[in-house]
Amino acid sequence: MDKKIKLSICMIVKDEEKNLDRCLVSLQPLMARSDVELVVVDTGSTDKTVEIAQRYTQKVYFHAWNGNFSEMRNISISYATGEWLFIIDADEELQDPEKLSLLLDRPELFQFNTIVIKVKNFISSDYSIFIVNKSERLFRNDGFCYQGSVHNQPQFQGPILSITDVFLNHYGYNSEDAELMEKKFQRTSTLLINELKKDPQNIYYHFQLCRTYSMHDDLQKAYDQGKVAYSLLKEKDTNTQAKYIYVFNEFVRMACLLGKYEEAREVCYEGLNINENYIDLQYYLGYCHEKLRDEEAAYESRTKFLQLHKKFTEDGFEDNGLIELYKLDDNSKYEILFKIAHFHYNQKDYVKAEEHLQKVIDNEAKIRLYTKVLLDGKQFTRLREYYDSLPEEFKNRFITDLETHRKTLDKEEQIQLSLAFKEGEGRYYQFNNVRAASTDKAWVEAKAFLAKYDMNEIPLFYAEVFEPLMQNSTTFWQEVKKLKSTTVRKVIKELIDLNVESKVALRKLLSEVKLRQDDYQGNRIYICVSYVLLIVALEDDTEVRPDKDQLFSGYIEHGLNCIQFYYQMDRIRLIYKTLENEEEQFFILMYLYKQAIETNNMKVAIKYISEATSVYPVMSPFLKYKTNLLNVRVQKEGIIHSIEVDAEKHDFVNSGSLASLSVLHGTMEIANQMNHLVTGLKNNNVYARSLNFSPSYLGYQCDYTLDLSKINDTEEIQKNTLEILRKSVQHFNVFHFHFGTSMLPNLSDLPLLKQAGKKVFMHHWGSDVRMKSIATKLNPFIKVKDQDEEQIKRQLSYLGQHIDHCIVADAELYEYVKGYYKKVSFIRQAIDTTVYRPAEEYEPRKNKPTIVHAPTSPEYKGTKYIMQAIENLKSKYDFNFTLIQNTSHEEAKKIYQDADIILDQILGGSHGLLSLEAMAMGKPVICYIADFMKEFYPKELPIISANPETITEKIEMLLKDFELRKELGMSGRKYVETYHDLNKVSAELIDLYLNEG
Fold first, then answer.
1. Is the pLDDT of residue 653 over 50?
2. pTM for the full model?
3. Nearest CA to 922 among 976, 980, 969?
4. What is the pLDDT of residues 496-537, one digit of tens each?
5. At a CB cut-off of 8 Å and minimum separation 6, what does 632 contact?
6. What tens digit of pLDDT does each residue of 393-420 get?
């Protein structure tokens, strides 16, 4: 039938007032023809949709929505009178109405029944990213209809005409109306789920449900549906797979979004084997290769992508098997060009990198990479040309990136770059004039720059102009005073980051500047500069040494000057907690701390230091150091007072033959020996005290403790210990030192004590004198700390010059000290047998005994061999094993008392204090005793000797023999009582003291 109407535009709409006008305006050039009609079926709008439609056509009809898209489409078609039907939705617009109009007049049109056009589905808010798909939209009106309740599918007839230059723009995937999109999702997903209940093997419905979930950001559900569609498709023949090739791409997309790159890559290969032109799969293949760190394969895939992109967009290639394509937009092309450029950059092929970057539109990522390409390629002039070619809005970004990457150049290259950018008008060119200037002129250029530009308002990298000004403290100080405090701190940090030597120059500037107390601006700048130097120093090393403490003191001094400038200090205690500026609050607390120190109120001083640490934790290392100094000062005052009080009591009550002896032991506690010896002396009615400068976690008792372990300032140590020395010289006539220590740093008190006529003894204990060259000859198993033997010898020589008498515990130590002292005496280790004794509640275990090992230095005690032996024996014997480490001595002692076997060292060749403590408690002991030491010890020594080669068999021997364990325990107790009781050992010491000199 020859119809008057050539084309019927058919639409179904509901609540589309936001979209409909745009759509209908785009159709106006087409509707201007007399042979084109517009048919609109409204399915229940409650907004202005109908009103808008009626402005464009009288053919507006009303049919309630019945939940079936195809039926509603077919209703709209039933009103059409045209020869051809054109199906369009309200959220679409016709991009090329004139071209479609021309198509209607083409004489060959009668040969076709269906016309395919292209649709751009916009998926970004700026419409720069879109999916291109082919869509059957024009149909001969001769019984044509739709089927399918959700994604209505046209039941079209061939032949088919594909048109490549007519586009629809589809905005439905990018709606900013969240409520509308949610309604669409609920409607579409419900319909699809219902359809799948009827037809669970429907690949297309699973695909559409996958996409629906994807648009709703339900990625896991989208992936699951995509996998179902893909799995169903895999069972089909090749032709069916080619028909539904888009299923591969959607599944790959979802897999990539969930990080399943290996799976996605395999599916890409499968899809490309079916259709090698599928550009989207080629895109994702490159993406998967990148994520799986196969850069060569990614490059290959991306090169093929660019070839396909050109083929589709420039060469006019069509592939009727590819219904929709995501990656034909320019943004995708630019992305791939950028990635290929980055690949070439990584390969150091800067020419190819630039070649690809030139094809990418200007954006921040491109500018950043382009800058690196030209910089690394040393194309400084080309870099300047590129900068000149950039639009103004990108130039600041370029300069920022250029400055970031400039730091990777060497000094000469930086100069060449500055020369390339020094000619021209503007801030950056003048900045490079400063850089390029000679040393004698740079400061002039820098002053000129700062006179024109406010450093408070420009990017931080311009801080480099201050570098030449650091050569003159007056000029530097004048310019920095113009800056805000926050800017000063940023500038100083930038200068240090640019050149680490700036720290030295800045320290010099601080030392040279002379500031009045009321010079607020000068003190403000001093605070800012010193603050940054302090923070940088802490980044390098948190340990506070004298140079850092000196810098901190300057920071505090000038901070106090500032707060006294703008606060009434007589009322400061009432308001400081209300201040919002933490640094000012900190300085006020330091002011109060200083006042407490001046009035000798140490308790209040420590309170303010603690509060300052909470208020300003960034300075906590320095404050902790101050606290340590305070504690040392308090301890020192306490020691001096105690020495005075103790001496007065001694003079008042003491009488007898030993009254002439007053003994001070110090200044390092080794294995509780100082405490034991002093206790023994006291028990023997000798006035004796112990002084410890190095207390440890073991918690040994001592009469006087001065903890110097956290003080690094030799002068501070000297000052405090010297006061104690002076008081000690007044009240003690015997000085018994341990482990190569004395009362002053560098043993400088020894000549003074000798000059004062004091009796001085040095008691060596092990690693203070042990030398590897000698030790390994005495004992093949010994493990010696890596120490400077020449330093040990030099110290022994010095000690021997000022001390005549040395004490050691055994023959091994004698080998190290002989020849250095006039006299060497043997004094065995001392044990308090009233403290170390068998526990009353302890019962030896015949079955499942407990073995204990307590190494203070596992490497030197042979712990690894012991642990191997224990593991080997566990399979044969039932026993408990306890390894004691980092435990206080009191806690360790409790564990020893419940042990059945004690394992001491198995490398050293002589027993230590652990062996003696264990024997005193009635425990059997295993410890390595070297052959030459067996000659020195009393023959009845009841220790089972074991070394790394025999430790397993010796432990096994004791595990098997309960009676032997009991016998060794009793013998051990008797041995210690005979040879190591502190009262007996101290009696030997008294003889030494009395007979010396």
1. no
2. 0.63
3. 969
4. 998 889 999 999 999 988 999 999 999 999 999 999 999 999
5. 706, 707, 708, 711, 716, 720
6. 889 889 999 998 898 899 999 999 999 9
Q: 702 and 669 in contact (C-beta within 8 Å)?
A: yes
For residue 78, give both structure tokens.
């039933």
Does position 657 have pLDDT exceeding 60, yes or no? no
Averaged pLDDT, 691-710:
89
| Cα–Cα distance for residue pair 795/769, rounded to 1 Å | 9
The answer to whether the CB of 881 falls within 8 A of the CB of 851 is yes
3-state SS assignment for residue 136: strand
More confident residue, 1 or 879: 879
Contact 366, 360 (CB under 8 A): yes
Give the Å distances, CA to CA, from 283 to 326, 683, 727: 10, 90, 85
- What backbone torsions phi and psi does residue 109 show, to the nearest 5 degrees? -60, -30
Q: In what order do the strands lie in the sheet with 943-944?
A: 880-883, 850-853, 901-903, 925-926, 943-944
Backbone angles phi, psi at 935, to 5 degrees: -70, -25
Other Cβ atoms within 10 Å of 316 Cβ, number: 9
CA end-to-end distance (rounded Å), the chain: 142
Bridge pairing between strands 130-140 and 84-87: antiparallel
Using CA atoms, how far apart are residues 135 and 118, in angstroms rounded to an integer?
Answer: 6
Q: Give the β-pairing of 92-94 and 160-170.
A: antiparallel
DSSP state of 438: -
User: What are the DSSP E strand ranges found in 673-780?
Assistant: 687-692, 704-705, 734-738, 759-763
pLDDT confidence of 546, banded at 50, 70, 90?
confident
Contact 154, 139 (CB under 8 A): yes
The pLDDT value recorded for residue 665 is 97
Mean pLDDT of 934-957: 95
Which long-range CB contacts under 8 A does 753-756 form with residues at least 24 apart? 753/729, 753/802, 754/802, 754/803, 756/729
Three-state DSSP class for residue 43: coil
Cβ distance 82 to 4 under 8 Å? no
CB 546 within 8 A of CB 719: no
pLDDT of residue 831: 94
**pLDDT tens figures, 563-573:** 998 888 888 88
Distances (CA, A) of 8 to 3, 34, 50, 76, 472: 11, 11, 19, 10, 86
Q: Which residue in this structure is represented by tokens 């000859």?
A: 777
Please state the three-class secondary structure of 896-960 as a single string.
HHCCCEEECCCCCCCCCHHHHHHHHCCCCEECCCCHHHHCCCCCCCCEECCCCCCHHHHHHHHHH
Q: Is the pLDDT of residue 937 over 90?
A: yes
Q: Could you tell me the pLDDT band of residue 320, with boundaries at 50, 70 and 90?
A: confident
DSSP H or E segment with residue 435? helix 427-436
Above 70 in pLDDT, residue 151? no
Element (H, E) at 569: none
Work out the pLDDT band at 92, boundaries 50, 70, 90. very high
Nearest to 916 by CA among 665, 684, 672, 668: 672
* Structure-model confidence comparison of residues 656 and 844, the more confident one: 844
Burial of 143 (0-12, 13-18, 19+ CB in 10 A): exposed
**Rounded CA separation 856/535 (Å):** 36
Residue partners of 27: CB distance under 8 A and separation at least 6: 9, 38, 56, 88, 94, 97
Q: Report DSSP state, residue 831.
A: B
Contact of 534 with 555, CB cutoff 8 Å: yes
Q: State both tokens at 755.
A: 């000059």
Selection from 366, 354, 428, 368 nearest residue 404 by Cα:
368
Q: Is 583 left (phi over 0), alpha (psi -120 to 50) or beta?
A: alpha
788 token code pair:
């400077």
